[in-house]
Structure prediction request, 429 residues.
Amino acid sequence: MKKFEKDFINQALEELKFNELTDVQLKVIPFLENKRDVIVEANTGSGKTHAFLLPIFEALDEDLAEVQAVILAPTRELAKQILDFALAVSKHSEKEITIDLYVGGVNRNDIIHKISKRTPQIVIGTPGRIIDLVVKENILKVHTAKYFIIDEADMTLDKNFIEEMSFILDVLDKTAVKAVFSATIPEYLKPFLKKYLDDPAVIDVHPQEVSSLNIKHLFVKTREQKRFNTLEKIFNTINPYLAIIFCNTKESADEVFAWMKEHTKSVTLIHGGLDYRKRKQLKKRIDKLEFQYIVATDIISRGIDIEGISHIINYELPRDNEFYIHRTGRTGRVDFDGIALSLYEFTDNSYMDKLEKKGISSKYVEIVNDEIVDAVMRNKRSNRERKENEIDREAKLNIRKPKKVKPGYKKKNQERLNKEKKKLLRKRK
Prediction:
């Protein structure tokens, strides 16, 4: 196990029972300690938070009352989680280390008043609030920062924040170390990173994790029925320790939650439309295992650490197949197994092909008599379609087209065609 120069860091790691550094920590920490910019592609649960926190604490001057590190996260929950990790390390320091959290949902005037009284050494927050304090209010002085960290960059730096984030990066000292962590790097981010990162080391540690996670990926066809019908069948076959049901929008999450409440399920709802304090209270109740099911949007697909998730249910497949990996990565952690059950339609075929190319071993199932059984592979559908097309052609040949077309001909002809097709199908059976 690596030893740090500052003894309080080693004490913290011992208390946290860090016996060995993770792969991402082993690769990232040396670059950050050597003041090298990095772009890190790593999935949730890889240990990346400590990969940037530990070098920050190692380089921190506890006697210097100025901002020395800025850490950005996409959601209040993830920012709070990073704060908790940071406090678990800093509490071992003999000298006080000031760490402040700046997120939405907290009284703005209270934050401004607190900053006017003292400057934190480590700043953790969401982009909207940090931009407000640095750019609009000009009260949070970050030009002294030695480290500037962007976590979950593809969510933190959405297209609305890139331009404003440029104002912050422009005031940083040229020697500041910049580190960007993300599961994927979207194309729109690459020009931004090229402009502001100085010869970054690119560290890619997540592709191998897709296949190494202990997850069974099961796909259930909806058969063009109401999704609630399929969902009900799933609930009749599983008894999860804790399951997350993912939806693509707040509206569909609300609908699923309302439907589940009617079916007296032990369920809660969490998405960005809920008040921050409400979400914070729910997180505490979730940690106490007061619920068996969580209906959620992608707000908790990354970063929010919930232990004991045995099942992931994709009520809707995420629009971006990278988010499928983020969602399902909430289960199958460490030495535990996990099951991902996803509802799909035949129109999702190309989406499924992309998932399989990413190394996801998919199994197609159906639910019969409250049991999950193997289903016909989706790619066999094309063979069945060809048979049906042959029948269509043969049926058309058997029906003579009249010389004179009377009113209502199309409707009557279709009825005759359907009858002929049924005859042919019965003969083939």
